[in-house]
Specification:
The protein is of the alpha/beta class. It contains 22 helices and 13 strands.
Length: about 575
Amino acid sequence: MPPRKQTAKAPQSSPKEVSTPSAKEAEDELKRLAAQAKENTFANHVVNQVGVYIRSLVLITLMAVYSNVSLLALSPVYGQIPATAWHNTVIWAALFIGWSSNLALRRALPYKTIFFIPLVAAYIPMAQFYLFKLSGTFGATYGPAITEGLTLAPLLILTTACTADTLEVADLSHLPGFIADATPGIGAYASFRVVELESIKHLVSSIGKSLPQTRMGLEVVLAVTYTIMARSKLLLLAIPALLHAAFMNPHILTPHATASLNATLNAQGWSVVDRWESVTGYMSVLDSHKDGFRVMRCDHSLLGGEWTKFKKVRVGEPIYSVFTQLEAVRLVDVPDRVPDNEAKALNIGLGIGTTPSALIAHGIDTTIIEIDPIVYDFAKKYFGLPSNHTAEITDAVQWTQKKMVEQASTYDYIIHDVFTGGAEPIDLFTQEFLVSLHALLKPNGVVAINYAGDFTLPPLSIVVNTVRSVFPSCRIFRESPQPSEEEVEQNGRDFDNVIMFCVKTDHEVAFRKVREADYLQSLARKAYLLPKHEVHDSALLRGNDIGILRKNETEKLAKWHIQSARGHWAVMRHVLPEHIWESW
């Protein structure tokens, strides 16, 4: 038989030729992969958590800044102090509602909460425009709360709810349970307050430097910022608000808005000559064509005015007698008086420049201290403040502290006439500040202090006591005759400008006989130069809360600010028509 054919078989590898990892190598590889996975997870976690806190901080910052801008927007219509009265209450309520209702809002709204925030921000200027027209109806007590309740509060509620949504994914597992629950809310509120306190300093110091740094400009900038954060098709609904801001809102300080405002005011016999915003508030110069006078406005108050219907001879004709009466500082009879051309005067607080203009016209070397550069600029451009004077655009407290030794016993006359009426810079009425004026005044010098206050409230009497504690001999006058008890009871106040003439000695203050040259060919000065309505001690308040105002006790005046400022607001609404205040 032939041999059987053998079928070839594939060669088989020897077990020694198969490469398999050892147990140790496999274990090392698993550890490496696990470490890499852990590293990636931790890095992503850190990035996500940082993103959560950054987004939350941005939202909180925008809220805090807007709360300050809202106050600035209300101050021209209600005044700075009435605007603050309910501000914190509105904020507290809005933050509480937003934080506690974030889940309900998320379920109720058809889109993400953050998409609605730019819409609310866009409509706030428009809402304020219409609400300001109702300020006379709302009043200074509840008007600011109503306005912010319908504008600022919805923005804060939505932004707070969005912040709460964002912080829900914050990893606080390393903290005990009750602390982890409370930390997001407490941390968010603390951050809000810190940013709010810091941002107001920067807003005030930079306001008016450009159009975006004005009240309405800041509201527009904030609305745009919200829009960048939350772009959506809902933004189309903001078009009416944008059109209103561009063509109908007079509060935006553009040439078009000013022209539009004047078109309305001219029909009522008024016009805006110029306006801008500065460190002390919204400033404007207005002409009354019907009655023939011009005034300078700061927020919801007037810094002075003069008649335009009377021919200006040497100085302007002031519409308020108080500024003319301050010039009577020259008439106080003192020993060794120097002639005017050898005298020096220090004028703290400029206004429209009525008193310093008169002092300069008499040939007195006059130094003006004014904190607001726009006030100084407007006084020169629109009220004829002479150029031959020394101007210091600075804080009066700092300036006097610096100069009280260097210029001790320099000035024959000091005029202290700063913005008051419920919003006085308290530091300028402390005993310490008055002591610095005492040091600057010559031994036979005279100081005249103007304070606008309510005789029925303690601040006026506190200021009088403080002045008398520094200057031993004073006489006090009010601008207008004292009203009857029935009038005081009916109005609920006795508000007036009060002028204190004081000397450094204990000699009685007396006025020399007025000469024709003292009038500067001015009709107003012939009528009002010499003060007439003296205030006696019986008209001032007495009691345990009537003491002396010191630098560390400013709360004595501050606690009465709201009541005093609301009374001042009511007075201003009678001085100028409501539409002037509302159409700032």
